């Protein structure tokens, strides 16, 4: 794929997106062992592409942002949350673009060889771009090819791991072959046969995966998707991010599906006015376009347009070791992650701890038989000292109140259960999403997952610390009362055992 005209005095970026028939790569080098790094970058790009589909954007706006947990603990400000979502997607894209640029240096094509310059100019908004359509036939074909390559590479990775295990078993038996009996010798022959078959399977997967593919073809597909995804982000989130390049309807860019004759908003502030935004004679097949912002443009000052991982700019004072330790555990250089203010759960370095507390409390509420006394003690020990004091004080207050009012234990337990189920209904999803967010980043090097990933705004990271701790205290006190009044303790334990 010829991306740039070598004879031109300036870079003709329109050629970068020109559709060309299949051409054999002029580069003699193939991906080889770099196949797995390329496949992981592809999976990240496909994940980003899918996360910007119409259904995902509607889900973000109408379900995630409006969910009780996000609205109560994180923010009710839609502008802030959309800004956060956009910034995190841009950061993911920047990480992928940096990797694509590194692979591009191994390509024979000049445009791919200097993709870092192209992407930098793209972010500055100074490029005369050609076709940057989202969800077109050609782009969908590229996505389909990338998904097939990712799947084949994942199979190759699994086959190589199985081969390594078999070879290790063979070496182990070979070391002891002089002392083993006939049965073990037959096992050795069986393992050798398995190794021969496994090597054939590995060779098959190498031929069908990216292993023997040239750099130009693989990197060319990734570079094109990087630019399409960036244009899509600008098109959708531009009303909330002032630094993004503005693409107007009058420009030569067509950022929406080529079935549309005009640019439409993928979601409206008021569904009653939906008919006013469309031509009466038109029935568009897509709702792609920018998020409408009827209010004043919302800007989060600390979110920078330059999201290069090497940037050292910090507008929010960093909190100490615990927060930095949690950032290191993600094994992921995330600028948005480190910008959580000190009054948030993530800014205090407590996201993972509180997520574990909430998930353990969920098990105690819905599956108490699976939680032993040691697990309950471990749960209590996970709490910071100040929270332990708050829980004890509230338990004591409730106990005195119960004794004074001579309340019926059963009805009180039922009341607590109803209250806890309501709280856990919006608190637990944030905890599970926190664990999922961490797992997706920690396991990125081991897995080839191209599904849309969880956003930070769905987690406890940007949750208000005071509100989150108040909810956790309420849950733990309620569980203690339920365990006491309903005698929910392990067999052989006295009925007076409390949860905490």
Describe this structure in a few short sentences.
The chain is mostly helical. It has helices spanning 35-51, 54-64, 68-74, 78-104, 110-113, 115-124, 137-175, 182-208, 215-237, 321-329, 335-338, 351-366, 373-381, 385-405, 409-442, 465-485. The protein has 3 domains: 13-140 and 214-277, no CATH class; 150-208; 351-485, no CATH class.
What does this structure look like?
The protein has helices at residues 35-51, 54-64, 68-74, 78-104, 110-113, 115-124, 137-175, 182-208, 215-237, 321-329, 335-338, 351-366, 373-381, 385-405, 409-442, 465-485. It has 500 residues and is mainly alpha-helical.
Highlighted features:
mainly alpha, 3 domains, flat, disordered N terminus
Low-confidence stretches: 1-15, 17-28, 248-290, 292-321, 323-332, 488-497
Number of strands: 0
Order of helices and strands: HHHHHHHHHHHHHHHH
**Which structural class fits the helix and strand makeup?**
mainly alpha
Question: Approximately what portion of the residues adopt beta-strand conformation?
Answer: under 5%
Q: Label the overall shape.
A: flat
The largest sheet, given as strand count, sense and whether it forms a barrel, is: none
The chain-level mean pLDDT equals: 75
Q: What Rg, in angstroms, do the CA atoms define?
A: 28 Å
Count of alpha/pi helices: 16
Helix content: 55-70%
First and last CA, distance = 66 Å
Number of domains: 3
